[in-house]
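Explain this protein:
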Amino acid sequence: MIIYEGTACPPEKGYIAIVVSKFNRTITQRLLDGALATLKKHKVHEEDIRVSWVPGAFEIPLIARRFADNEDCRAVICLGAVIQGETSHDEHINRAVSLEIAKIATETNKPTVFGVLTCNTMEQALERSGAKVQTKDKFVDPTAGNKGAEAAEVALEMIDLLSEIPEPRLPFDEMFSNFMDSMNGRDEDDSDIYDYWDDDDNDDVFERLPPPKKKKRS
């Protein structure tokens, strides 16, 4: 049995992006502070962090996608705070943002972490942003109870975990697409369909074979 488990450590290369909403900035600034403190604790250099402020939570996915599509980006941390109001506006925002963030992660194969608070009250949001009563003689850890800090921890673990798990081989849908291209008259050199063969009864595993030899014309 092989067990994979990531650890919170700095990535070997690339940068980590943080997209944070300006709406409810009293809350989101605390989330950002927690995320930055956590990255610093785990030895991520300041020059390897990119922070982008967006107007509201609804704008987070667009900028998150822009970062995730960049080859040098290792992960995107999405921070925001949507608090319930008198209408169902918050429900629509939360649903749209959460679905888009999940879509970005699966389509780009980049950790895209959901650190958006979805609270019923401002008090709940303050609690989840690590807000505590500060005294003159005691330092308050910005990461304590801070969902932004948790999101940064998740991002680091996922970067490390993905580096341990072997990358997938040619997916079936891509192989089928190559096959259809070849049937439409493309040259063999332009398609990989002839380079793969199912090595057993498992339809998800393919072995690379040498390309077929072209027959000489007589």
In short: The beta strands are 15-21, 49-54, 73-83, 112-119, 196-198, 206-208.
